[in-house]
């Protein structure tokens, strides 16, 4: 077994970035791309109504996943810092408790999904086949959520243990499994949207079993120990994971409100156009997240060991990578909006609206890397107040404010909400860095 502490504390920052962040970004992108592939298959093989239904349901599903992700992020930060301080037994105890808490909360989230979803869909304006398709999609996911949510939790711990390449490989395998089952159900057997959810759930459940085996064997840097949940453990997990949870849930609430507004202003096609953009966003954001998330253990180790010089160097590599990715993605959306839309839907009559909307919303990536880097770094060093402030404003406060301010412009106003909120968040992030974070690095 590799000495993870020595690896994170002594490896040259640029070398550490390429050995850790690149595989982590690829793995994280692979582990999340199946949602975009799923929507692509639904749009091409099931139809526009099913595509719109899936995009209505997906934010609710991701809110449920955010509960487990909160536990993963919150415990991972604490585990990395404790390992950096040499407190191995405390790290194992936190790891064991986090797995148990994540499973229990995921089961509760699945129950809430099934009960609350039909009422929420109706409030959003869904009825008829749109409502039935949305319910079929989300019900299947709710049944498998204890396994599917745990995949994201275990992936965090694999990276903490230094198994970044294994994480990348297993996430690619998961994406291929999900694609195989979905293609089988939708293309070969010609089934509906519920079977798309079943295909992805099966692929993720198999991956969950594969991921937990190394921990069960007891040869990892983290081991299962006797379960002991204390108030301190619960406090640390929820305190550290709150920024991530608020960011994820706030963003999904915003998506729900955007979908509701679009459904009333432009019908199913407006929801579908926004869905195409969000599915592309679902590819780039995991890549960004994977970079910082893979290096979060390194930042935590070095922060716990008092190596602020290395923390600054590692963070600089991350920021440069995020900026390059976002600027490249902006160019892609500006140059090829019609091809991107056509990947998901065959709706030539709506192409002018789609091209305009995708280009307008794509402007957000010119500045999105600023707020994302600042928020991720704040979380990695346990600076939760700053991270929470940026995440809430980015995902909820600024988008809601822009919805209210730009609503008189109709659909154009809705498209403008996305880049306007991103610009305001970047200004806030720069202020937070200048006032608080820069001083902490001195």
Brief overview:
By secondary structure, this protein is mainly alpha-helical. It has helices spanning 4-10, 13-46, 48-84, 88-124, 128-160, 164-188, 193-216, 231-304, 308-335, 337-344, 351-362, 368-380, 384-406, 411-440. It has one domain (8-436).
Structural class: mainly alpha
User: What is the total domain count?
Assistant: 1
Strand content: under 5%
Question: Based on DSSP secondary structure assignment, what is the total number of beta strands?
Answer: 0
Rounded radius of gyration (Å): 21 Å
Mean pLDDT: 86
Euclidean distance between termini CA atoms: 35 Å
Characterize the largest beta sheet: strand count, sense, and whether it forms a barrel: none
What low-confidence regions span 5 or more consecutive residues with pLDDT below 50?
none
**Tally of helical segments:** 14
Shape: globular
Helical residues, percent: over 70%
Order of helices and strands: HHHHHHHHHHHHHH
Description:
The protein has helices at 4-10, 13-46, 48-84, 88-124, 128-160, 164-188, 193-216, 231-304, 308-335, 337-344, 351-362, 368-380, 384-406, 411-440. Helices cover 87% and strands 0% of the residues. The protein is globular and about 60 Å long. Helix 13 (384-406) packs antiparallel against helix 14 (411-440). It has one domain (8-436). With 442 residues, the chain is mainly α. The mean pLDDT is 86.
